[in-house]
Amino acid sequence: MNSTGQAISRIDGHAKVTGAARYSAEQPLPRLAHAVLVPSTIASGRVVTIDSAAASAMPGVLLVMTHLSAPRLPAGGMAGAASPPAGRVLNLLQDDRVHYNNQPVALVVADTLEHAQAAAQNLRIAYKKETVQLDFERAKKNPYKPEKAKDEAADTRRGDIESGRRNAAAVVEAVYTTPMEHHNPMEPHATVAAWDGDRLTLYDSTQYVSGVRNTVAKTLGISPENVRVVCPYVGGGFGCKGSTWSHVVLAAMAARQLGQPVKLVLERPQMFGPVGHRPNTEQRIMLAASRDGKFTAMRHDVIASTSRMEDWLETAALTSRMLYACPNQQTSHRLARLDTGTPTFMRAPGEASGTFALESAVDELSYALQIDPIQLRLQNYAEQDPESGKPWSSKSLRECYRSGAERFGWSRRTPQPRSMRKGEMLVGMGMATATYPANRSAASASAVILPDGSAIVRSGSQDLGTGTYTIMTQIAADALGLPLERVKFELGDTDMPRAPVSGGSQSAASVAPAVKAAALAVRRKLVELALADGESPLSGLQAENVTVENGWLTAQADPRRREPFAAVIARHGGTALEASADAKPGEEKQQYAHHSFGAVFAEVHVDPELGVIRVERIVGSYGIGRLLNQKTGHSQLMGGIVWGAGMALMEKTEIDARYGRAVNSNLAEYHVPVNADIGSIDIIVVNEDDQHINSLGAKGIGEIGITGVAAAIANAVYHATGKRVRDLPVTLDKLL
Ligand code: MOS
């Protein structure tokens, strides 16, 4: 019986809850030294003096590395900076420049963490400050086109928006803003670096082991073959761990200099600067429609913040290009520089912020036209990708609207704002569309059948807590014809066959086909071995007449002719059988537009006196191809929704406009939802099998869950209160 699709509990769950799972910072290496990062306390300028004498003399201190003493790197430390996600502009103590508050300016290494922390506090650093720009409101007055604008960020224009607007019955024109937000996985970034001669091993918490290998090798000027990156467990990634940041290379530099392994774990406040964030956005939307709700013109112009060091763009207008059929449309992206750390990928980078603006504007238009919000969206349903004209690889959005509305009870909603109450509370119901690209990249895997008939399958992918171990074990077991408990799936090691970054929601869609192909290949070897073997009860049969199930080969015509995997191998010298496979997207990648879609419905209760907002319940209905595991899959979507609720109501990094430091750089003051903030979440996955994505029919699900949620909640708040908040987060002060 196939296990793929079933609600199998996490295979790694027991190891995680018992502490047996070893995370990056838990590598018990002999002579392990402890490093502490010393961050800058100004936002822009130079380090004038850095007095390390007192710190160096303190108990247990092994090394104080500053820009004066750090080893010089090729290209000033920029050799690996060329290609995100892995390669970013880093701060590796190569000069005296300070580009943002919280930038690494020194590294202190000692025999214990406490000794390193104490010494780090005794560094005397004098700075020369320069004027800073930390106010997005002012910075955005000087927007610029990203120099290395990726093709996807280029300005687009189709049709004629002026005439589309002139002929409209209703026009919404509004500015939506989203704040700077920082990733806060439970496990902070952590690296253990250990050298053996000229070979480096990194135990690094990362979404991309092979990316870390290549970037660190380039940055240090050594061969990638001499770098091994190991990461069996990640305590949350969300995009921040897709890139190789400064601390990884600094740990390697210190370990090489000391000749002993070094551990460097970022402190929680150090998560707010050197390892990326979601930038501020200002999004200007113009949406026009005819009386019957057909869009006649749409314009989406984005300004996002970035750092001095690097042009990194939150591509918030991409969704607007493809989500609705609209003949006349224009999009643009611009950047505004702030003296902060560089932004980066954060769960649905572009789609999460972009759908807030677009799906709020569509809601505003529904009131202007007095058309039901679902009906308005159906009026503009895109039967193919409006941008490329290509057919969708699969799209079940109509069914998402229908099933979501039914489960939610949308028909009970009275359209008028402030028209629904429960006791004293104002009740609001809002909805929005969710979408995210269905990405896929090349990946490889290997599979081994051991002499005892069990199997090990490997791919150098990552499990961010998402369920990769579990779904790959299910797929491998089904392909091998083995029960789940006889298959071990391993990941997170550059010694394994290469897999892509676990970002862009692509691990399942990319790695699963490779795992399936490798498992089928080794199973074929086993079957061929038996069929060609005179001593096998299956001798002489054709492969297609043999059933492989539960660790047995059985003749279909005669169930008495059968033998277990181990018997075949035993007669052949007892050596394990092995196969590997590469899988990559074919021409279908060009022929079809690949997207996941969904519909999100939210009910909020708002206290009319105090403005307190409660999210009572959320229903999300998604078309995501074949669901590989109902339990881990639903959890992925729920996790995205919870984050969407935090984005809607709570999350915002407060930057001190004088010093550039995040004021709320801790989990007490950087608000994210806790259990009590979340009412019920109900997930529907509609029946869909994408024939044009991969051999599993499965699209990714890591990011779509957050998209549309902030808009659905803001739309529900409007419905409850009559107050349109276009500036996230929707906090109670904005309702009063
Ligand atoms: Mo995801 S933000 O692409 O790791």
TrEMBL record:
Q: What is this protein called?
A: Xanthine dehydrogenase, molybdenum binding subunit
Query: SMART domains, from UniProt?
Result: Ald_Xan_dh_C (SM01008)
**Transmembrane intervals:** none
Residue ranges, annotated region (Disordered): 143-164
Enzyme Commission number(s) from the entry: 1.17.1.4
Domain (Aldehyde oxidase/xanthine dehydrogenase a/b hammerhead) ranges: 18-131
The scientific name of the source species is Collimonas fungivorans (strain Ter331)
For this UniProt record, the keywords arranged alphabetically read as follows:
Molybdenum, Oxidoreductase
Which Pfam families did the record assign? Answer: Ald_Xan_dh_C, MoCoBD_1, MoCoBD_2
InterPro entries, per this entry?
A: Ald_Oxase/Xan_DH_a/b, Ald_Oxase/Xan_DH_a/b_sf, Ald_Oxase/xanthine_DH-like, AldOxase/xan_DH_MoCoBD1, AldOxase/xan_DH_MoCoBD2, AldOxase/xan_DH_Mopterin-bd_sf
* An annotated Gene Ontology molecular function: iron ion binding
